Amino acid sequence: MKRTVLLVLFGISVVPLCAVTAEMQYVVPYQLFVGDRAELYCTFACDVPLLTDDTVPYFVAPNNFPIAADTDAYTIESMYITKNGDQYQLSCSFRPWTPGTITFPPIDVVAAVRGDAAAFSCVVAVKPVTVQSLLGGGESLHGPHGPILLPGTVTMLYLYCAGGVCVCTVLIVLAVRWQRIRYKGKKWLKRLRYAGNVRRTLSRLNKLVHAPVDDPQFCTVLERIVRTYLEIRTGYVLSAVTTAELRDVCAGNGSERAGEHERALEMLGSVFCRADGVRFAIGAVDYVPLASGERTGLISRVRESIALFEAGEA
User: Fold this and answer.
1) Beta strands at 121-125 and 17-21: parallel, antiparallel or unpaired
2) What is the per-residue pLDDT across 209-225, written as a single tens digit (0 to 9) for each?
3) Which residues of 260-270 are buried (b: 16+ CB within 10 A; e: fewer)?
4) Could you tell me if 66 and 111 are in contact, meaning their C-beta atoms sit under 8 angstroms apart?
């Protein structure tokens, strides 16, 4: 009776053990040198269910590593287990510190997942790993690792080179054609200035048509508008120039269209003479006020003169 009880107690105290050998094992990188960071992959089958969630890898906490993590031969940095169908894969990230053959002790994957209190054990036998010395063949040093390139780095380098070539090409073209570009730029800016001058002048003339002012004030404002236009158009200050001197000062500006400019100056001269007669002859015996519709006629002649000045700038 006592012998039966002892056998039962002994059977209860024994933990079921499952010892397996990795069906497939490989190391990345294939040629491993001292100090390199390497990944050890072991595929095995285990009758004991290890993972509750088969879709998420189980990362083993460092305090649950089933073998020593830091030795003179290697240092284990991380460890995780994944399930692939009916099999499991053990992944171990480590760094070797000694050349030659490294022998890992058997790894109890059940203890790694469930701790030391697990009722079952599944021990995976890991095959030895060979580590190369930094002195390959005892003569030549191990070559340096290639640069780590982010995805798209080569494409970005090509784009930068192409952009640099385009910028250099543009700078060379600008340097060769600088005088021509400068001339065209100045001409374009002058056209913009003239166009703005015309818009402002015509806008002021439109407002003057219906302005509630008497004849002398109308003529004064009309002459001021025309003088401002001609100052910008010719580049001369005309505020102190008399009507008789106006044609001589403006003559020769834009000689390439001298005929149109002469006609425009003649029309403006007649407008100025009529305006001066209204401004300065008021109260005289021969004073003739502006007739009905004459304001519109004067403004129309000013507009026609502006059109002649600007005809060659389009």
Assistant:
1) parallel
2) 888 888 888 888 988 89
3) bbeebbebbbe
4) yes
